[in-house]
Specification:
Rossmann fold; 3 domains
């Protein structure tokens, strides 16, 4: 009996010494949570059978393979929450757990939970599901609400350079291409035209296929002012047609990028010459595309661009865990055979 007792004590001591670590990735202890969010842990345990997540004493979900996380809706309650992750391993013989407590929101506090829309170009042999992708914002995992293969109705603004350097048929080619290719847009899309040189015209509505009158090229170039003039909170595709840089804008490059890098504006561009760094950054930040062409290939380039826009995916997620300022978005595939060609890189939140 004495020998058996010693063996049992040794086994218990060995098990205690080998207790695995369980660490919360999100949310963090003392963080505030509201609405849909991910609950995720890492653990040093081996041979894991499953991870059980409980919120306020009730089972909220189970994860059986890494990454060990679940999506949970904390609702609109301002109360604190107790969150426990219990890791079962070695044929359910061992268990390790950790508990955190989130902070309550007081009556005098506010917490912004923004719905972010991310346009993206993806190559995949199979139709994508939300579970095929992972989204982080400033490194914090986000919950995907919806992934749509159709882009939905939107506002299209053709932002066309009419400066003196757009002579030699380039400006006429741009206006003809818009008239020819605008019928590719959806019936519910709104179409506007903005012309700019050193001055910027007010956006005016145009019809699909409308033959646009010839405009004489003249003056300088205020591209940044033109793009900043159409900023809106509605879903907007700004298609820029220009032949070069910006010499006359009043708004600075950083201020213009800040203005257009909101959650629902995408900048695409066809450049008849050398693209400016500003235009490249504007397209990259918003998930758009920049291509080069000349007067003879402009219509073909616009056709390909609109076809590409019509076939893009749109991903929606509910932002949480970040404050005001620049929010960097990273989207990664969760299975083989998915190539993310382009997606919004981030946005500024107030």
């Amino acid at each position: 009996m004495k020998r058996i007792a010693i063996i049992i004590i040794n086994v218990l001591l060995a098990a205690a010494a080998q207790a695995a670590d369980v660490t919360f990735v999100t949310p963090q202890n003392g963080a505030q949570t509201i609405g849909p969010a991910l609950i995720e842990i890492t653990t040093s345990a081996a041979n894991i059978d499953r991870v059980e997540f409980s919120v306020d004493g009730a089972l909220a979900g189970v994860a059986r393979k890494p990454p060990y996380r679940i999506a949970h809706d904390f609702g609109t309650s301002l109360a604190a929450h107790s969150i426990t992750a219990k890791v079962w391993s070695n044929g359910f013989r061992n268990s390790d757990e950790a508990t955190i407590r989130t902070a309550a929101l007081t009556a005098g506090e506010t917490m912004n939970v923004d719905v972010v829309e991310v346009p993206m170009r993806v190559r995949s042999a199979q139709r994508l599901q939300a579970s095929d992708l992972r989204v982080t914002e400033n490194g914090i995992p986000q919950t995907i609400r919806e992934l749509r293969a159709d882009r939905g109705a939107a506002r299209f603004v053709f932002v066309v350079d009419r400066s003196l350097s757009m002579g030699d048929g380039k400006l006429d080619a741009a206006l003809r291409a818009i008239a020819s290719e605008s019928p590719l847009l959806l019936n519910d899309d709104r179409i506007d035209l903005v012309l700019f040189n050193h001055n910027v015209t007010k956006a005016r509505s145009i019809r699909r296929g409308e033959q646009l009158p010839s405009v004489p090229p003249s003056g300088g170039t205020s591209l940044r002012d033109a793009l900043a003039s159409i900023v809106t909170r509605e879903r907007t595709y700004a298609i820029v047609i220009t032949d070069g840089g910006d010499r006359n804008s009043a708004i600075s490059e950083s201020a213009a990028l800040h203005a257009i890098s909101n959650t629902k504006m995408i900048v695409d561009a066809i450049v008849l010459g050398d693209a400016s760094n500003f235009l490249r950054e504007a397209a990259k930040n918003t998930g758009g595309t920049l291509v080069t062409a000349d007067a003879s290939t402009l219509q073909r380039a616009l056709h390909a661009l609109i076809v590409d826009i019509n076939s893009r995916y749109t991903l929606d997620y509910q932002s949480h865990g970040n404050g005001a300022g620049w929010r960097s978005i990273v989207i990664t595939p969760q299975r083989r055979g998915i190539e993310i060609v382009n997606a919004r890189k981030g946005y500024y939140a107030r």
